[in-house]
Amino acid sequence: MDVAHRSGCPINLSLEVFGDRWSLIILRDMMFGGRRHFRELLTQSEEGISSNILADRLKMLLDQGMITKADDPSHKQKAIYSPTEKAIALVPVFAQLGAWGRRYTAATEELSIRAQLLEEGGPVLWNRFMSELAHVHLGRPLRRKGPTVAERLQAAYDDLRARKTKRKTT
Amino acid sequence: MDVAHRSGCPINLSLEVFGDRWSLIILRDMMFGGRRHFRELLTQSEEGISSNILADRLKMLLDQGMITKADDPSHKQKAIYSPTEKAIALVPVFAQLGAWGRRYTAATEELSIRAQLLEEGGPVLWNRFMSELAHVHLGRPLRRKGPTVAERLQAAYDDLRARKTKRKTT
DNA sequence: ATCATCCGGTGCTAAATTGCAAGCGGTTTT
DNA sequence: AAAACCGCTTGCAATTTAGCACCGGATGAT
User: What distance in Å separates the CA atoms of residue B98 and residue B105, rounded to the nearest whole number?
Assistant: First the structure.
C-alpha cells in the first residue's frame, strides 16, 4: 500500500504525482483539449506520446485518483477517461505554468493564446473553468449560462489560426 | 544550438525546462531554503539527491539560464549558485504547487506551513517575495523594510517545529 | 606542520525508465 | 468481406537514474 515518499513536502509530493514529462501533458489534453479516449490522447497530442507510455501513465493517474475510467456506451471497445476533482484542481497550476512558459520560453503564438486568456482572466476565470469541468466530468450542477470558458478558449485558438492561415495564403 | 522541442505549447516548453523529478526541488531549496552551495544542496535536501544528478541538473539549469554560478570570495573551492529572474518568476508556480499538494497529498504539517502562508498571502505576498529574491540574488534595490517574507516563512517553520518537539517531550 | 574535514564534483555499475515499432484479439464501418 | 479502428501489450535498444566510492585541492584546528 505505502509507497515510499522522498519527503513530506507538499511541493515534492505534488512532483511525485505529476512531476514527469508526460502526466501534465495528458491532463492538459484531457481538460483543455477535451480528449477522453486512448486513441485521441495518442494521436492528437502535439507532442507525440508513445502508446506504452500513455498506457502506463493512464494507469498511474488512475491509481493516484487523478482520473477515472469508464466504458463508452456507444462503442464496446472504447474507454472514457475523465479527470477527477483532484486533477481539476490543477487548473491554477496550469495557468501559472502557461504564464511562465509564455514569458520565458519560445512558445508559439497560436499555442499561447489559451494561456494568455487564462492568465488575463485570473482566479475568477480559473474558478469558472473548474466549475465547468466539474459539471462536464463529475456531473455537478452548473448555474452559469452563455458561452463556456472552454468554448471561449477554443474559439480564440481557432480564430487566431484562421487569421494566420489567411495571412499566409494571401 | 537548437534543441528539438516536442511542441510550441507554453506548458510543454515549461515542462521541458523543469518537468522532471529534481529541477524544481533544487530551485525550491535555493529560493526557499537559502541553499547556494553544492554541498548544501546535496546534504541538506529533504529528498536526498545524489551528487551526479545534482551536478547534472545544475549544469542544465545553468544552460537554461535558470541559475548562475559564481566563485565564493571567502573560499576558493566554493561555488555560489543563484537563481536568475527566470527562476524567481517561478514563485507563483511554487505557490500553486504547494497549495495543491497541501490539499491533495499527505504532506506533513511542518513542511506545509510555508506553503500555507504563501497560499494565504496570495499574489501580494508572492510579489513581495520575488522582489526580495531579486534583491538578494540580483542586487535589485529593495524599498520595503521590516521582516522579510523569507524570514517570516522560516520563523513560522521554526515555531511549528519547536512546538511539535515540545509537545512530544512533555 | 600535520591531519581531519570540507570542497565541487567524476566514474563506475546496476537498475529503472523511455522511445519506437510491431502486433493482437476484438469491434465497427464501409 | 474487407478495411479501419479500438485499447492496449510485447520486445528490444537506448537513455536516464540511483547509489556509492573516490579525487585532488583548500581549509581549519591543533
Answer: 10
Q: Report the C-alpha gap between A121 and B130 in whole angstroms.
A: 22
> Hey, where are the domains in chain B?
6-84, 90-170
pLDDT tens per residue across span A101-141 = 999 999 999 999 999 999 999 999 999 999 999 999 999 99
Tell if B163 CB is < 7 Å from nucleic strand C: no
SS3 for A71? strand
Q: What is the pLDDT of residues A130-144, one digit of tens each?
A: 999 999 999 999 999
Q: For residue B164, what pLDDT band results from cuts at 50, 70 and 90?
A: confident
Question: What is the C-alpha to C-alpha distance for residues B29 and A49, in angstroms, rounded to an integer?
Answer: 31
The Å distance, CA of A51 to C1' of C19, is 10
pTM above 0.85, yes or no: yes
Interchain pair B93, A93: CB under 8 A: yes
For position B166, what pLDDT does the model report?
74
B25 has a pLDDT exceeding 90? yes
Interchain contact, A101 vs B13, CB within 8 Å: yes
CATH domain B6-84 topology:
Arc Repressor Mutant, subunit A (1.10.10)
How many whole angstroms separate alpha carbon B98 and alpha carbon B117? 10
Quickly give B161 CA vs D26 C1' distance in Å. Answer: 36
CB contact under 8 A, B10 and A48: no
Instruction: Using DSSP, state whether B114 is helix, strand or coil.
Output: helix
- Answer whether residue A166 shows pLDDT above 90: no
